[in-house]
Design a protein that fits this description.
With about 140 residues, the chain is of the alpha+beta class. It has helices spanning about 25-35, 45-50, 60-75, and strands spanning about 20-25, 80-90, 100-110, 115-125, 125-135. The two termini are about 20 Å apart. Pfam families: MaoC_dehydratas.
Amino acid sequence: MANQSIRFESVNVGDELQPVSVPITVPLIAGGAIATRDYFPGHHDRDAARELGSPHIFMNILTTNGLVQSFVESWAGDEARLMDLKIRLGAPNYPGDTMKFTGSVTEKNEATRSVQIALKGSNSMGSHVSGTVQVALA
């Protein structure tokens, strides 16, 4: 099913994106690491993660990056095109937690028909990811 695209003309600076909650699970973390060819043991082996001082396996940056992209694209729609994505990591994502994405439109560029989204993904320990995404709209 196609995702209805947001029109550039209908977006204003200050608009809030619908918050999205992502359950953090072992399959999400391990599957994301394997899909991105990140075989670091801390992303799929609980014993190895504990040897590193971590209570459980933890999400890799490429999985986080994909979740950020999905958050913005689900808001913007099928006709949108990501132009730039900049993120910073904070607290790790561990299984059994939930990450809640929030975001808002902070800039609007008429020349490129694009908007900048400032976003944050937080879990029970605080900010897991923050950053900006520039997305061209229909």
